[in-house]
Design a protein that fits this description.
By secondary structure, this protein is of the alpha/beta class. It contains six helices and eight strands, in the order E-E-E-H-E-H-E-E-H-E-H-E-H-H.
């Protein structure tokens, strides 16, 4: 079973990520399993999802906007955002949109080309779960969540920038 980092702990991955679109027959064949569907499949099959025995999450490509699933966020137990290459940062913006503007409070997972040195920044944008690239060490990755004690910029967890969080010494 694959392992990942969730809420700063290494855990077994209880979900099966389906990279290719699925139809209703394929979904029936997966009955009883927790699956993460591509957004296109999730939207197409969403009326059939309550009959699925198991949880159904959704993953978004870096070109898909979270607003497309906004009306159903309360029904989605897990949203995964894809990093096709580590240099593509569009999923950072989607994570902040989901957390700050759309109020999504459940598991937000980074998938794809996820590297240790990205975790601090990903968590600041709202990710709480990380499916690391296969060559990454999970124990080392967890330590990277605490690379910095403070940051200048505002984040999902600290909405005020540093200069507003610090009290003035002289007055």
């Amino acid at each position: 079973m694959a392992r990942l980092i969730k809420d700063r702990t290494i855990v077994d991955d209880q979900w099966e990520l389906l990279r290719e679109p699925v139809d209703s027959d394929a979904l029936r064949a997966l009955n009883g399993r927790n699956v993460i569907l591509p957004m296109s499949s999730w939207l197409e099959l969403r009326e059939a999802l309550p009959a699925h025995q198991g949880f159904v999450g959704v993953w978004l490509k870096n070109i898909e906007l979270p607003e497309a699933i906004a009306p159903w966020l309360e029904q989605i137990p897990l949203i995964a955002l894809d990093f096709p290459v580590f240099t593509d940062g569009r999923a950072y913006s989607s994570a902040r949109e989901l957390r700050q503007n759309l109020g999504y409070g459940r598991e937000l997972r980074a998938i794809g080309d996820v590297l240790c040195d990205q975790l601090f920044y990903m968590s600041r944008c709202g990710f709480n779960a990380f499916a690391m690239r296969a060559d990454q060490n999970l124990e080392a990755a967890i330590r990277r969540l605490d690379d910095f004690k403070d940051a200048y910029q505002a984040s999902v967890h600290s909405p005020e920038p540093l200069f507003r969080r610090r009290s003035c010494v002289n007055g």
